[in-house]
Amino acid sequence: MTGFSLSDLEATIRERAHSGDPESWTAKLYARGIDKAAQKLGEEAVETVIAAVKGDRQGLVSESADLLYHWLVVLGIAGVPLDEILAELERRTGRSGIAEKASRDGRG
Ligand SMILES: N=c1c2ncn([C@@H]3O[C@H](COP(=O)(O)OP(=O)(O)OP(=O)(O)O)[C@@H](O)[C@H]3O)c2ncn1[C@@H]1O[C@H](COP(=O)(O)O)[C@@H](O)[C@H]1O
């Protein structure tokens, strides 16, 4: 398993967003704002769906990577940290209460 995480990508995006590098796609998206970034996210979602339906495994991997990257850019522009999404997902598993209790009991 790779050691690379969505948190790593989020950190890269945060760093590149305001880099001022004219070659940076991230900086370009941030400069163009939420409408353009959300449009790209939608396009990548559709391309991911098409790859899945076609049974294009390699396409699904590639489009999924594009999708997650553009999703993190949209979250970044909207000011929503990845951690907030992970906390929401954790809450849905019903485990967050256990983690909070363990933390309160000094076992966290
Ligand atoms: N993961 C990605 C990533 N995935 C996709 N893309 C870019 O997303 C863009 C969208 O591709 P498309 O073919 O859909 O779009 P396009 O046709 O080029 O653009 P439009 O004509 O639709 O505007 C491409 O330019 C890709 O390079 C990414 N750009 C950056 N990253 C990550 O972000 C880091 C920083 O990148 P820069 O900000 O470019 O330095 C990189 O090191 C990567 O880790």
Uncertain residue segments? none
How would the global form be characterised?
Answer: globular
Query: Which compounds are bound in this model?
Result: phosphoribosyl ATP
Strand portion, in percent? under 5%
The level of helicity is over 70%
GO molecular function: phosphoribosyl-ATP diphosphatase activity
Subcellular location: Cytoplasm
Protein name: Phosphoribosyl-ATP pyrophosphatase
EC number: 3.6.1.31
Task: Describe the structure in your own words.
It comes from Mesorhizobium retamae. It is found in: Cytoplasm. The protein is globular. It has six helices and no strands. The mean pLDDT is 93. It has helices at residues 6-17, 25-32, 34-54, 57-78, 82-93, 96-104. With 108 residues, it is mainly α. 78% of the residues lie in helices and 0% in strands. The chain has a domain at 6-80: Orthogonal Bundle (Helix Hairpins). The protein binds phosphoribosyl ATP (PRT).
Task: Provide tags for this entry.
single chain; mainly alpha; Helix Hairpins; 6 helices; binds phosphoribosyl ATP; amino-acid biosynthesis; hydrolase; nucleotide-binding; EC 3.6.1.31
How are the SSEs placed, and which strands pair?
Layout: H1 6-17, H2 25-32, H3 34-54, H4 57-78, H5 82-93, H6 96-104
Bound molecules: phosphoribosyl ATP.
Phosphoribosyl ATP binds at residues 12, 16, 24-27, 66, 69.
EC number: 3.6.1.31
Family: Belongs to the PRA-PH family.
Subcellular location: Cytoplasm
In short:
The protein has 108 residues and is mainly α. Helices cover 78% and strands 0% of the residues.
